[in-house]
Amino acid sequence: MAIQIISTRQSNVGKRSRWLWVCLTTLLSSACVSVPETPEPSPATSAKPHLTPTSWSTLPGWQENSLAPAWSAFLKSCGAATRDQHWSEVCDQAAAADATLLHGFFERWFIPYQLADATGNKTGLLTGYYEPLLRGSRERRAPYLFPAYGIPGDLLQIDLSTLYPELARHRLRGRVVGNKVMPYYSRADIDAGLSTLVGREILWVDDPVALFFLHIQGSGKVVLNDSTRVRLAYAEQNGHPYKAIGKVLIDRGELKREAVTLQSIRAWLERNPAKAADLMQQNASYVFFEEQPDSANGPKGAQGVALTTGHSIAVDPDAIGLGTPVYLEARSPLDGATLNRLTIAQDTGGAIRGAVRADLFLGNGDSAEALAGRMKQPLRAWVLLPKSVKP
């Protein structure tokens, strides 16, 4: 899953609500759920998408592509409580569709639209995310000294949708000090120790760097010292905007831009233990978790459904609606193999901004980490919209 910071999209709301929005967002930022460790996007990438209707023959590898894994993910989205009511007819048809004739189903009920940004650029960025595996304990004892926290009791969540419906997708976080709402504590504050978090520890892990990347990915699995496994899933966030420490290392001259991957950042942190805490604290965003049983299903994304390995993506919800099928054209950073496939937009992420932008969920394990950590690939994408839905 992914951490979603406040939207940079310019809204067409009235002056009063726009003024309120600007004032509030200087204090707090919103969050939902995994982000890749890549330099932060520029504001220009948050523009509305440009959609060009096209034919199915223009989708590279469409006819040869197996749609079964994405079909399973699509049915999950159709069953989500948050599904868009405009999709009711096509979802009803999907429930009765012949699973051996999936190409025909999509070609009958959908139109493919190629994505471009507001400038007409059709090439964007594909990254990847995964569930890390950590070692932990129910009790704090060496080497398990680093806590994964549940939601703090003093974390305030502000929902503005009753007054400003146009802000319904955004929530603000903070804490009450006297009669004022203040930003919630930063990563540095929390790392220093807070009495308000005593008793909120779910478990302790043995590696602060692994815990940091668990915050970045949004969920993961922990092998406890009694050999049982649990999943730590995203529950909340402290409201501070996400900041990519890879960009910090670039700005400091520690890494070259083209060399920034999850693996190179982790290696730097391990080589520089005296500087590691300060670097990680440059990202003030902090995630709070909930414990879930270990299962073969993926973690839940922003749409509230379990993610499907290799076929669920995180998107910018200002560009692509959750539950939308999206066809991707890209190549693997490991061997150049094609990654052309149908995916379903089921998650969001703080670094996922822009029209031609996707973050592919890759599952868990070493191979998932190896691929996700290096995934920064050129992307072309097509959204599939029901014929009854206006773009």
Characterization of the model:
With 391 residues, the chain is an alpha+beta fold. It is built from ten helices and 17 strands. A six-stranded mixed barrel has the order 3-16-13-15-14-17. A six-stranded mixed β-sheet has the order 5-9-4-10-11-12, covered by helices on one side. The protein has a three-stranded antiparallel β-sheet with strand order 6-7-8, with no helix packed on it. The two termini are 27 Å apart. Helix content is 23%, strand content 26%.
Q: What distinguishing features does this structure have?
A:
391 residues; alpha+beta; 6-stranded mixed beta barrel; 6-stranded mixed beta sheet; 10 helices; 17 strands
Please summarize the sheet with the most strands: 6 strands, mixed, barrel
Instruction: Name the helicity range.
Output: 10-25%
Helix and strand composition category = alpha+beta
Rounded to the nearest angstrom, the radius of gyration is 21 Å
Shape annotation:
globular
**Uncertain residue segments:** 1-46
Which H/E pattern describes the elements? HEHHHEEEEEEEHEHEEHHHEEEEEHE
Distance between the termini: 27 Å
Secondary structure blueprint with pairings:
Elements: H1 15-25, E1 50-53, H2 68-78, H3 88-95, H4 102-109, E2 110-116, E3 124-131, E4 133-137, E5 146-149, E6 156-159, E7 171-177, E8 180-182, H5 187-192, E9 201-205, H6 208-217, E10 219-224, E11 229-237, H7 245-251, H8 262-271, H9 273-281, E12 287-293, E13 312-314, E14 325-329, E15 341-347, E16 357-364, H10 366-374, E17 376-386
